[in-house]
Specification:
Elements: E1 3-4, E2 7-15, E3 20-26, E4 32-39, H1 45-56, E5 70-76, E6 81-87, E7 92-93, H2 103-118, E8 131-133, E9 139-141, H3 147-152, H4 163-170, H5 179-197, H6 203-212, H7 224-232, E10 249-253, H8 263-269, E11 273-277, E12 288-294, E13 297-303, E14 309-310, E15 317-318, H9 322-326, E16 331-332, E17 336-338, H10 347-388, E18 391-399, E19 406-410, H11 415-426, E20 430-433, E21 436-445, E22 450-454, E23 467-471, H12 474-491, H13 499-505, H14 520-526, H15 539-550, E24 554-558, H16 565-579, E25 585-589, H17 592-609, E26 615-617, H18 621-625, H19 638-660, H20 662-665, H21 668-678, H22 686-694, H23 698-704, H24 710-721, H25 723-740, E27 755-756, E28 761-762, H26 764-770, E29 774-778, E30 794-799, H27 807-814, E31 817-824, H28 837-847, H29 854-858, H30 862-872, E32 880-882, H31 891-901, H32 917-920, E33 933-937, H33 956-972, E34 985-989, H34 992-1001, E35 1011-1015, E36 1021-1025, E37 1027-1031, H35 1032-1035, E38 1040-1046, E39 1055-1056, H36 1063-1070, E40 1073-1081, H37 1083-1089, E41 1090-1091, H38 1102-1112, E42 1116-1117
Helix pairs in contact: 2-5, 2-7, 5-6, 10-12, 10-28, 12-27, 15-16, 16-17, 19-25, 24-25
Length: about 1100
Amino acid sequence: METIGQYYIIQKLQKLNDNLSFWLTDNYYGQNFEVLTIAKNPNYDKLIDRLILNEIKPLLNKDISGFQKIVETGFDTENQVYFIAYDNFGGQTLNEVYEYANILSLKEIAKGLDELKKDNRQTYIVSPKYISTNTNGTTKVRFIGLFELFKVESLLETEYLSPNVIEWLYDTKKSRPNFQDDIYSLVKTFERHIQDTYNSEQNVINEILNKSLCVNRTERFSKYHEFVELLEQIPIFTQRRTLNTNSQIVRVKTQPQHEQDIQDLINSMNENVWFLVENKLSDVKEQMTGQFSTNTWNGRFFIDYEGYIFIPFNGCRNGKNDKVIKNGNSFLSQFSFSQTSANYNCLSFFKNKFEEQNRLSELNKSKIQLVKLWQTLPDKEREYIEETAFKAKFKSRETTSNGSNIKFHLVEVSNKSWVRLKELKNESVILFIDDQKIGKILDFHPKENFITIKDAFCSIDEIAESGELIEDVRQETSQFKKQVEACKKFEKADVVNHKLCSIMATPETTAMPNNSYLKIWEYENFRYEVFNSNLQNDDTQREAVLEALNHKPLYLIQGPPGTGKTTVIVELIRQIIKKQKNVKILVTSQSNLAVDNVLEKLDEINQKENADLKFMRLASENTLEKENIRTTILPHTSENKLKNWVTETEQRAKKYFSEQFTTQQTNKSLIEFYDFYSLLDKENSWTEFNRRLKMSQNYLKQLFENAKDFKEVKKIFDKELGSEFLKLKNIQRDWFAFLGGVTVEDGKDRKKSMLNNGSTEIDFLTAMMLQTNIMGATCIHIASSKYSKVNFRFDYVIMDESSKASPAETLVPINMGQNIILIGDHKQLPPVVTREEAVKKNVKSELEDNGLDFEKAFGESLFEKLIKAFEADESKQNYIKMLDIQYRMPKQVGSLISKYFYDSKLKNPETSVISNYNKEKHHELTLKKDTSIIFFSTSQRENPNDNDNKFNRQNKCNVQAIKELLEKLNVLYSDNLAKPKPFTIGIIAGYRGQVDLLKSSINLSQYSNFVKLETDESGKQKKTNLIEINTIDKFQGAERDIIIYDIVRSSKGQSNIGFLDDYRRINVAFSRVKRLLVVVGDSEYLIKRATLNPNGKFTEFKLQQIGQDLQQQGLVFNQLHEIF
C-alpha cells in the first residue's frame, strides 16, 4: 500500500492490529497528515458507517482542546480501507515517554472532554497508548469517536477503564459508559504523574484522585465544571506554556503605561481565551475589532495591520464575560500569546473570521428575503381570489310572493360576472352582504338585472336598502392567510422552537444543536424494543425511528413508494409516548388522506392490542360536509369525541345509580313522579302538582292524598325512596343538565357549560384537547381560529408528504413544534405552483423581479431544500434517512423504480424475510411472458396521435386501447368479486383533458367483475366501482392492484414531450401498482421521436429510457393476443 486516498504513505507509525494501522503521510502539496486505516470487514461495516456518520463527520475540522483534529474521512476503494486523516501532531505515545506527562496536558484534555460533553458527546478512548505527546509537553488524545470500534477490536486498555465499564464490556445491558467514566480514564492515565509530582495528602489532590477513581460511578464527579475547577487549583511547577517554533505565538500589545500590568491577562489568555469578531471595522483606524474573554479577564481587542493584537488594558475588566463565551459566533483560540516574541502574523486569520461574520450577516439578510419570497405567493393568491370573486351592487331589494325569497335589483353587471353567477348557482354557493349570510341563488335574469335568493337566512328588514352581494371566499382564502401569518411569525422567531428558524432558512450554513449521538449497542438493543416486530427485519425503518427520537430538533425521513412511511410514523408515536406519557404530538400533512392513514392504524392498534393511544381528529365543517374524512375516523373527530363522551358519561352515571339503588329502581312510577316534582316551582306550583296527581295511578294518589303542602310531599318521598337516593338523584339531574350545555353556544367563544381552572374558563372541547396525546389535522387546519384558546404547542410535529407542501404551508405546523420530523420524498410530486398568470405577474411585481423563475422559486418544497443541504454537509447526514425496502410493488416493478429513480438504492424484500412475496404480488393471470410490466403499444393503430391541443390534450386511440384492455381483464378476472379482497384497477393519465375523455367514454359499470354491490344497514344496495380513473396528482398516496398508465402524448413527427419529462410524475404513476403495470401509448413515438424540453430543468428523459428498456426486454406488445 503506497497511497491512502489522496495521501502518500511516508511510514507506519503504529500497527494497532491486523485491521487498524496508523500512518504518517503527506499530500500533493507536501503537507503532513496522520492517517488511521480500518480494513473493510463485513462483520462491522455497518458499525463503521454509523461511527463515521455520527461520531467522526460532525467533528471534522473542529478544534477541540487536547484532541487531535480530524481533517478528512473517506473510503479507499483500491485498498478496501476506510480512512480518517488527522492533523500531523508528531510526538510519541504517552506510554513510551511518560516523563513528558504534565498537569497542563491533563487540564487541556479535561477542557476538551468538557467541550464535548456540552455537545452531548462522551465515552472516549483515554489511555497512555492512545495519547500522543511531543517534546514541549503538548499532548493530544488520538482516535476521537472510535470507542465502539476499539471495543469490538479488543483494543481498549482495560487497566484504564472504570470497573463499571469493564462490566459493561461483557454485558451491554448494564449501565452504559458516560462522561464520569471518561474522567476516571483521564485521571487513571495521569495518576502516576500526580502522585509523583504532588503531595497526595493535599485536600485538592486527594479529592481529585478519590472522587475521580471511585468504584461506584454515582459517587464520582457529577459535573465537569466541578472537576475542572479543582484542576485549576493544582499549582503548575513547569512553565505555563513553552514558547517555541512549534507553536503559533501571537504578539499582544497595549498602551506603554500598562505593559507591566497586562502580563497577568496574557497568562490568562494562554489558559483559555474566546474571541468574538464584529462585522464592522473600528471607526478611527478601520481595524478589525471585537470582544474577548478569558476565565478571569474580558475586554476589547483590535487587530493591527502588522499582525499583532492590541488590547487597551485600561478598558479591561476582571472576570469572565459569559455573553462572549456563549455567543454562537465566538471561538476558543488555539494560539499562544506573548508581549515580547512572536512567530505568527494573525492578520489573515482574523481577516477570515471577519469575512465569516459578514457572511453570516448576509445570510441573515438572505433569510429575511427568503421568507418574504415564501409568503409573497400565498399573499398574491389570496388577493387574486378576493379580486376575482363575484361581486354585484344592488340598488333595491324586495320580498317575493312566497315571502321567504328575496329579489335584488342590480346595478350594471358584466357578462363575465353573469357566467360566474351561473357557476355559483350550480355549486349551491351562499352569497353574503358584508358578514351577513343571505342565501343560495334561486334564479337570475341578466336582461332584467336581478337575482333571486332562495329561502333567505335573514328577513328583508335586516338587509340595507342598497349594498353589495358578494361570493364568500373566506374558505378559499383562509389557507393563504394562515400561510402568510406563519411566514411572519417565522421571520420574527415567534415560534415554539426559535432554533428551527435558522436551520430551516439557511440549512447550508447553520449548525445543528447539540445532540447525544447514538452508540452501536443502542441500535442493536432497539431491535428488541420496537412495538411492531416487522421493524426487526427492516434496518432503515428501525434506524429512522431511533434516530428521529434522538437527533433533534429536526429529522428528515425520505420514504420512496411502498417503503412503509405510515408504519414508521406509528412506531415513532408509540415510542415517543412510551418515553413521555404526557407528550403532545401533531400528526399532519397537506392531505386529509395521509393524516387519516396514520390515525386509522392507531385505531386498529387500540382495538387489537387494547392500547390506550389517545388521539383526536381535527377538521373543518367544510371537510366534514364534503366527506373528505374516512368513515372509520369520524367517531374520533373533536366534535364526535365530545358528544360520545357526554353520552358515555350519562350512561355510566345511570348505570352506577341503578347498581347502587336496586330496590328503589323497581319503583319506576314513583321515580318518574319525583322527576316531575323536582322541576316544579315550590312556591307557585301546588295546583299543577295536584292536577298531575289526579292523572296518576291509584298507588301514587293514595301515597300523597293527605299531603297538604310541598314539605309533606318531600317527607313522603324521603320515606319511600330514601334521603340518600334523593340527594344523589338531584346531583345526577344537575349533572345531566350541565352535560347538556357542553355543546350549546352561549355567546361568542363560549358554551353554556364551561370548566373553571381557577383563573380562566375553558370549554370541554378545549379541555379534552389538552388531555389528548395525539392530534391529527392538515397543516393548514391546525391554525384555525376555532382553536385559539388551546394555544397549541407540540413536543413533536410529524408531517407526512412534506415534499408536496410549499415552504409557507410547511411553516404553519413547524411554528408550533419543539421537535420536527418531516417525512416525504422529493423524487415524487413537488408542491403545486399557481397556474394563474395574473398571480405570477403580481408576484413578480411585488418582488421587483420580472425574470423570476417560478418553478425554481416555488417548486421546491422545504423538505427538498433541507434534504439536499443535509446530504451535502457531512456533519448533518445523520439527520436524514432513506427507507430502502419497498413492500408494495412486484419485484420487477420495484427494481425498475429503483434503477431509474433511486440510483438502485431501493431494494425489494429478501425472500428470507417474506418467503411468499412473489406469490402475494402476482397478478394471477396466465401471460405469454412471465412479467409484471406490459407496454401495450398503439403505434400500429390508425391515428395513434393526440389532438395536439395544449389546453385540453386528448388521445382517442389510447382510450379505445384501454377499453379493449378492460374488457379482457373483466373476462379473465371472472372470479374477482369472490376473492376475500377483490382486485382493483387504477387508470392514470398525466393530462386532465384525457382524464375527462376517459371518464366520459368508459362506462365503469359494464365491467361487472369490478363492481362491488353491498347492502347498508337500511337495506339499500350500494355500488362501488373497483376501477378508478384520475390524474397522477390524485393518485399520490394511493395504490391499486393493477395500474394502467396512459402516456397520451403522440405526434407524427419529432416533438417535445411536455411535462412528461418530469420523472417524478412517472415515478408516482408507476409505483402505485401492487400486481400488474400496463403502460398504454405510442411506443415508437416515445422511443424514437419524443424529445426533452430544451429549456426544462430535467436533463434525463427517464420515461424514454424506460420505454427503451422494456423494448429490449421484449415487453412491448401491439395486440392483446400477444400478451394473454
